[in-house]
């Protein structure tokens, strides 16, 4: 009886040890793959950032109004006011309060830190629901 107990404890410790070593090995493999994949993406991110600055001017903390013509300035100001009104309405709806109780002082865009496949999946799901 005592021998069976000792053998079962040895098997248990051996099994747990193997699982623990396998998990540590998986951690190192995942870190290695992460470093290899991110090394290539960091170069691409720098190129993409320069292209995005030209294409998307709304990533800054506030909307900059162009001063080329008075009409464009008025249109951009109207768009900013509409954006603030929509954000205020959304916040009021989520908090179940009146819009009179909420004051939006500034609007700050948060850049996407999601991988490309994540953004593509979201866009696909939104397109399927429309």
Alpha-carbon Rg, integer? 27 Å
Q: What is the domain total for the residues?
A: 2
Give the termini distance in whole angstroms: 68 Å
SSE pattern, N- to C-terminal:
HHH
Shape: elongated
Largest sheet: none
E-strand count: 0
Describe the structure in your own words.
This protein has 3 helices and no strands. It has helices at residues 2-55, 70-95, 116-129. It is elongated, with a radius of gyration of 27 Å. 72% of the residues lie in helices and 0% in strands. Mean pLDDT is 77; it is low at 50-70. It has 2 domains: 1-55; 65-130, no CATH class. The termini are far apart.
Topology (elements, then pairings):
Blueprint: H1 2-55, H2 70-95, H3 116-129
Short précis:
The protein has three helices and no strands.
Please supply descriptive tags for the structure shown above.
130 residues; 2 domains; elongated
């Amino acid at each position: 009886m005592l021998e069976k107990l000792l053998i079962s404890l040895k098997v248990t410790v051996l099994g747990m040890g193997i699982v623990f070593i396998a998990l540590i090995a998986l951690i190192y493999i995942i870190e290695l793959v992460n470093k290899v994949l991110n090394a290539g993406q960091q170069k691409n991110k720098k190129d993409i950032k320069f292209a995005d600055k030209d294409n998307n001017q709304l990533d800054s903390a506030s909307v900059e109004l162009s001063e080329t013509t008075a009409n464009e300035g008025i249109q951009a100001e109207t768009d900013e006011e509409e954006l603030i009104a929509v954000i205020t309405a959304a916040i009021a709806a989520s908090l179940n309060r009146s819009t009179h109780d909420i004051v939006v002082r500034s609007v700050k865009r948060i850049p996407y830190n999601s991988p490309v496949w994540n953004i593509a999946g979201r866009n696909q799901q939104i397109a399927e629901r429309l």
